[in-house]
Each structure stands twice: as structure tokens, then as C-alpha cells.
Amino acid sequence: MAYRDIRIIGDPVLRTECAWITDIDDSVKSLVEDLLETVDEDGRAGLAANQIGVGLRAFSWNIDGEIGYILNPRLDELIWDEYQDGDEGCLSVPGLWFPTKRAWYARATGIDLDGKEIVVEGEALMGRCLQHECDHLEGHLYLDRLDRKNRARAMKQLREQGL
């Protein structure tokens, strides 16, 4: 296992749609180990493979003391009856936090390292995490979901940071 460096906004891997995992080989197993080790730090809720430079559809999470992973996730249910619009941040966009509207509940279906189907679901922070990480796998950052005013503020702050 290896703790991996986080790719920062401006790195093209973050804006590239990730490939579906078709073969669970040693490199995929190693990727999962790296994702689990790298997300296991205070303040980290989720980590997509492209955030550590790997363009495959996988992510890990660290929510309420539970650490896990999913391969080839697809969001298959969002419940917008209630929504959340609290501040959201991203390891790949350091230091910025902006209100981001998300569904209150999300469910993703994917596979584990044995190729067996798994379902990961949750409300509040877990629901936000699932949506955020699946966005990463599509080549999107949470900044893309901001309203016009907050996006302008975010872009200004990024320029001021030299990003």
C-alpha cells in the first residue's frame, strides 16, 4: 500500500472521464489499497482514483468511521424531496468551500474486488460523498455545480492562489 499525492485543479486527469474497470487484476487491487490508505486521514470524506492520477472508475470513502471502496459505481437513485446545499470542498481544490446543492439521499451500485455487485447508499454527508465522487469519475469538479455568483468567487480565489 502507498499513500498517494492528490492531484490539484489544473491537472488534466481531473477533467477526463474515467475508464470502466474490465479486469480486476493486481493493479486494480493495488489501486484500491492506495485509495483506502490515502482516504484514511482526518478531514477526508472521499477520494476518486483520478485524484491520485489513475483514470479508472473507483473511489474510496471515509464517513463516520466507515472506510470503504466501490469499483465502477453508477448513481442509480437520488432523492431530491429534501436536498442539501451546505458548503462543499474538495481535496483537489484546496482551501475553497462553497454551498453546493446535492440530493439528500444517493445510492450507487458497483462491484467489489471479487466482481460481486455492491450497493452503497446514504443520506446527508454520505449522500453528498457519493455524488461528489461519481462526479469526479465523469471528469467534473464540484465547482461545476456552483451557482453563477459562487462560481465567479471560486474562480477569483483560485486565480489569487495561482491555480
From TrEMBL:
It holds the Pfam family Pep_deformylase. Fe cation binds at C90, H132, H136. Its cofactor is Fe(2+). One of its GO terms (molecular function) is metal ion binding. The active site is at E133. Binds 1 Fe(2+) ion. The keyword Nucleus does not apply. Its EC number is 3.5.1.88. It catalyses: N-terminal N-formyl-L-methionyl-[peptide] + H2O = N-terminal L-methionyl-[peptide] + formate. PANTHER family: PEPTIDE DEFORMYLASE, PEPTIDE DEFORMYLASE, MITOCHONDRIAL. Removes the formyl group from the N-terminal Met of newly synthesized proteins. Requires at least a dipeptide for an efficient rate of reaction. N-terminal L-methionine is a prerequisite for activity but the enzyme has broad specificity at other positions. This is Peptide deformylase. Belongs to the polypeptide deformylase family. CDD domains: Pep_deformylase. It comes from Actinomyces gaoshouyii.
